[in-house]
Amino acid sequence: MTEGKASRRRGLQKWLRRLFAFLPRQQRFAIYRSFVDCDPTPSERLVLKIAETREELEACFTLLHDAYVDSGFMKADPSGMRVTLYHALPTTTTLCAKFDGQVVGTISLIRDSALGFPLQTIFDLTSVRAQEGNIAEVSALAVHPSFRSTGGTVLFPLMKFMYEYCTTFFDTRHLVIAVNPNRIEMYESLLFFQRLTANVVENYDFANGAPAIGAHLDLRHASDVFKKTYGDRPLRKNLYNYFLRTSLPNIQLPSRRYYTTNDPVMTPDLLDYFFNVRTQGFSRLSDHRKVLLHSIYDLPEYQRILPPVPIRPGKGVQLRQHHRYSFKCPGQVTLTNEGKKHHFPLQVVEVSWYGFQARVQPNVELPLNVWTDATIQLGRNDISVVKAMAVRDKINGFFFNVGQHLFGN
Prior knowledge:
Blueprint: H1 3-21, H2 25-34, E1 46-50, H3 54-71, E2 92-99, E3 102-111, H4 126-129, E4 135-143, H5 155-168, E5 174-179, H6 184-191, E6 194-195, E7 201-204, E8 210-218, H7 219-230, H8 239-244, H9 268-277, H10 287-296, H11 300-303, E9 324-337, E10 340-352, E11 355-360, E12 371-379, E13 382-394, E14 397-402
Parallel strand pairs: 4-5
Antiparallel strand pairs: 1-2, 2-3, 3-4, 5-8, 6-8, 7-8, 9-10, 9-12, 10-11, 11-14, 12-13, 13-14
């Protein structure tokens, strides 16, 4: 599409949105919901999966670039791709929709990390962080122009994939978004996102200075809201049935040996290709972000492709010494007191080479610096039995040192 045609189209859309804005809010929401068309049996030609190969990731980033340039959310990049540092993180998952093998839709889910979230630079997440559960920012949504006016042929399956992945694999309770004011009502009316603030941020650097509104969805309560609104609607209008009751064979969920909660795909070669070869993403980082990146990718095979860590004279750089993995798996510790054994169930949420972090029931206080027997179900067929000692009591769980590696068996 030429720049002139794109400009005229945006002008027409702006004029139509102004007319639409004169309608009462509930009437506008009703109109949005009337557009819902979620096919419970989409074409077998449609496949939804995690983008994991270089070709899939490049197609996603290219589709995203073209959509953002067309919308005015970024300037054209020489690479023809929109790749951000968040795409480099092991806690970010990029989902894609493929039709006849071609990527026609994409969306990225960004879990919390040392870099935080893109939107937290302009929106306060204190109230969301105060609640239980992990947070993920929904970002980088794009649908191929050929499928934008086909009644949600790609968009709704992609949204269902996102919902299913977050609630079953990504260990996510809260979704947050930063979207253009022209698009916020779609998320409010269809998915029941709640605004983080009533004010519009007029200049969001992450979207080329476009205005943005932040919003939040608590997935723990979403099913009840969906049921109340959509429960009695016809099948193709029923997002409650679609998101929570319908099984789409088109969705390819990841296969995992361990009960991990994210799906990192960025190998050293992929990071090098996207952030050193095709773009200058790594070289443009601030010194602080370079240090953080090294703390996330501390394995030796990544060091050759990461940007050098700046070290000022007389000052060292403190980096995390061992890689950490996000988990959600059951386990228990056993304490022996006066010849009697006491068993305490726990849920492991993070594992490193020399320890793990776990949550116990609210009324349980484990003694610190006392050796216990720990049994951890790392995966369906992987159980680790180790000596463990609780050495730190934190709000988000006890941290245990272990006598031998959890993955030693």
